[in-house]
Amino acid sequence: MSRYCSQCGKSLKACICQWIQSLPSKVELVILQHPSESNRPMGTARILTLSLANSYSFVGEDFSQHSTLNQLLAQSEVQHFVLYPGESAVSHQRVADKVAAQQKVRIIILDGTWKKAYKMWQLSSNLHALPLIRLPENLQGNYRIRKAPSDNSLSTVEAGYHILQLLQPETDFAPLIEAFNQMIEFQIKQMPPGVFEKNYLS
Ligand SMILES: [Zn+2]
What range(s) does the DTW domain occupy (predicted)? Predict the structure, then answer.
């Protein structure tokens, strides 16, 4: 018998499936995951793909020749935005208006540390022509497990939650954050006393 859950890919002991709720979303997410993220026990992108039936997840670093992604990008009836900071980023309100007007929107999320995401962005030239969308700057993350470069850096599931909630205020995406918090609580309980405080609180 495998030691890993076939649904969430985590160890059976750390299975997160009991906290996952299936959520309807008109906005589709495309998660581009850096290979170094895919085996991390705290990878949070999984919560997004398990909760959102119409999401996509691909692993790689340079996506410029990724045929499935390029097929998605070629769908002219869908407007694509990359969730990435940049001077030219459009306001989420403008995109929310499109969603409210029943236009099809897909958000591409880069899943990796800041440095890895930057590398992915640089290499994946097929993303460069797409408009950027960014989150408000004052959002607080709860990623206590992972050392964050700054106070407002968010885990991938938190970034996904915020963008979906901002674009679709009529739907409650809080179960994403609840599953995330349960996962953190579980991980903290697994650590020997003092380790969490010593290594992860900063
Ligand atoms: Zn599971």
Answer: 1-192
Residue 121 Cα to ligand 1 midpoint, Å, equals: 30
Q: What is the DSSP string of 43-86?
A: --HHHHHHH-TT-EEEE-S--TT-HHHHHHHT-TTEEEEEE---
Sheet of 28-33, strand order: 56-59, 28-33, 104-111, 78-83, 132-133
| Burial class for 139, CB neighbours closer than 10 Å (0-12, 13-18, 19+) | middle
- Report how far residue 155's alpha carbon sits from residue 157's, in angstroms, rounded to the nearest whole number: 6
Taking the centre of ligand 1 as the mean of its atom positions, its distance from the CA of residue 68, in whole angstroms, is 26
| Ligand 1 center to 160 CA (angstroms) | 20
Q: How far apart are CA 30 and CA 49, in angstroms?
A: 9
- Give residue 142 CA to ligand 1 midpoint distance, Å: 22
Contact in structure between 29 and 109 (CB atoms under 8 Å) = yes
Ligand 1 centre from 16 Cα, in Å?
5
Predicted TM-score (pTM) of the model is: 0.87
Q: Mean pLDDT per 10-residue run, the chain (202 residues)? A: 84 90 97 85 85 95 98 97 89 94 97 90 96 84 52 80 96 95 85 66 44
CA 39 to ligand 1 center in whole angstroms: 14
**Residue 4 Cα, ligand 1 centroid: separation in angstroms?**
8
